[in-house]
Amino acid sequence: MNFDRLNSYKAPVRIILFLLTLLVIWLPIAAPLHLIFGESVGVALTILLYCGFLGLIWFWGRKISKYAQPFRYYGLAFTGKNGRDFLFGLGLGCITLIIFCFLQVSLGWLAVQTTTWQAPLSARLLPALGVYFVDWQGAILPGLLTSVGVGFAEEMLFRGWLLSELERDYSKKTALISASLVFAILHFIKPLNVILATWSQFVGLVMLSVALVLARRRCNGRLGVSIGLHSGLVWCYYVVNTTHWLKPTGAVPEWVTGINGNPIAGVMGIAFLSAIAIGFSWVPKKI
């Protein structure tokens, strides 16, 4: 096979060929398993697909793109520096969403559910206390594990592989816009009526991607901050959403606080993401 010819194609062609190759590898395994076991293996097949994606990244990077260290080229380096970047991003994501929630509570746009927090002590020490711990224990650790998995998977795919491939052939601005639009579109494949009802979420997804791209660029191409920031935002949202800790008061329209309770589907969330993006664009690059 003429690998040099494959490597000479423009980014869109390389990306499509890569994805087709991944499907050719995955489908012969996934299709029979799905026919036999049905939806019960859906999660396992998704994990298998992503493992295939990582394996193909390594093979494609070494044999076709001629990268000595494909994962490092795409921003994934298991180093202390990248680990510290991850912790910084995780903290930034958590703090951002905490401030976001606190501000809206202060403005009277969100209300804290008082049944758990302000119940009499005697009530909380009995069955209510049990419910309290079940709710939060069932949200915090599973939420962290889920969010780190989502953050790693999506950052390696969109801000790692896809962005790097686009940057090979296009300017940084074009690559940023293209990668962000692809990220938003793929997260917004829904029925038309749902798209129209949650239109602001698309803008939020674009701004989230822009912030994550700039976070990677600030760290000299490392993905640690991007993975951490993405994970932190998802983690705190998961905890708040799972425990039903906060609820809208109706003082302002839903498109201000977030349609269907989704922070990035509201003006406030988009403003916060824009502030993060501006912050990363202003901060000097970290070596």
Radius of gyration from the CA trace? 21 Å
What is the element string, with H for helices and E for strands?
Answer: HHHHHEHHHHHHHEHH
Strand order of the largest sheet: 1-2
Most strands sheet: 2 strands, antiparallel
Tally of separate helices = 14
Strand runs, count: 2
Low-confidence stretches: 116-134
Overall domain count: 2
N-C termini distance: 38 Å
Query: Could you tell me the strand content as a percent range?
Result: under 5%
Helical content class? over 70%
**Mean of residue pLDDT?**
88
Label the structural class: mainly alpha
Q: Which overall shape is indicated by the principal axes computed on the Cα atoms?
A: globular
Structure description:
- The chain is an all-alpha fold and about 290 residues long.
- It has 14 helices and 2 strands.
- The protein folds into 2 domains: about 70 residues; about 200 residues, no CATH class.
- The chain has a two-stranded antiparallel ribbon with strand order 1-2.
- α2 packs antiparallel against α8 and α11 packs antiparallel against α12.
- The longest helix is centred in the middle third of the chain and has 43 residues.
